[in-house]
Queue: 3 jobs
Job 1
Amino acid sequence: MSKYTFSALNYLNAGRLYATGAIKLITAGLATETGIGAPAAVGLLGTGLWNIKSAMKAEERGNKMWSDAQKSNDSGWEWKNFNGLLPYGTEYDDPCEPSIFDFWKNKLKNWYDKPVEFFEEIGTML
């Protein structure tokens, strides 16, 4: 499968996350109207916003993979392209980039440098 395929899959994932986030935000808004649902609305609001921010990350990955595919001279098929669907996937989806294990070993040591970005990326898988 080429980078175009995984780019499209990232776009589909982004759409799923946008829809989920929007539903949660609408539900949170409706729950606050009753007054009784206000405490639950806070959780829905938080997770809805997380879904939206994670959708933006998945969409960015899709854009980067599409751009990379257009610049590529080869057939576009590499085993590492599968990594493009994972959090930070564009950082280790090409043969010249670090392995998935090396990347995550370093990322887990330094996740606290950008914790919001880290949780947005993880959110793309949920």
Job 2
Amino acid sequence: MRARQFWNLRTGADVQHAVGLFQKATEKIRNSLRPTPGLHPRMCAVRIRFPAGPRNESQGGAAARRALELDGRLAEAHAVLAQCANRTGIGPQPRQEYQEALRLNPNHATSHHWYSLLLANREKFTEALAEIRKAQNVDPLSPVIQLVIGGTLYDLGRYDETLVEADKRSNATWP
């Protein structure tokens, strides 16, 4: 839980700290499936955005594929595969992987969040806003989700609403 808390802050140092906490948890719980498929691949996928992170996403993709070998019903692993494929252009179709993640767990905020970014990058801003609002419904206190809502409203040209959303968030950095 502490690792997830630091991961959600999305600064380079916090993500690095989260990875360290996760690795300690993994050492303590070697036979548990949950830490590896859920948290570790997700952190690997996010770490690429920070200077201390890896320069490719093979680590996150490999961890997600391994998790799916152990349990193909893990929404987080499907979301990480989609994220890695989206960023690298290698691997499965991101849209289908996000949709599979959400089919498996419709209440997985990160899947909604990352899927909204994919939709926005494809200039499907109305769909992206609907998806990020779903993420917000699941995780209403996430500053990064709040930030994406503001960015998506801006992309839609809804500037007054963008300012309202910007006032709500604090200390968030880009996802």
Job 3
Amino acid sequence: MFSSEFDDVTITSNGIVNIYQGEGRLPVGQINLLRASQPQVLESVGHNHFRLLDHDGFGLTEAEIFQNTADNDRLIQSKVLEQSNVNLSEEMTEMILTQRSYQFNARTISMADQMPGLVNQLR
């Protein structure tokens, strides 16, 4: 029914992925949402990806670690921008301190370069 080219992709709030081609709509998948009730057995591997540690050492089964979310808890928002978890005022302060440190070091190097010239003028 659908070719490899499509007009749009949407994700509903309950995780159903739809593709649109012309006037047709085809649900192509479902995003499963799980809640990690034991997050200490997850290890961050970067880029919002996590790896399950050896959970046998914790004495837990996967059913005890992950639980399905309730239908009324599921909420996926499509075509929205996620808020950053960066504290803007803290990062700006760090940037200003770094910039001032750089300027101080640059002036120190410049003064050290000028010192031999000043000593030669005193002679």
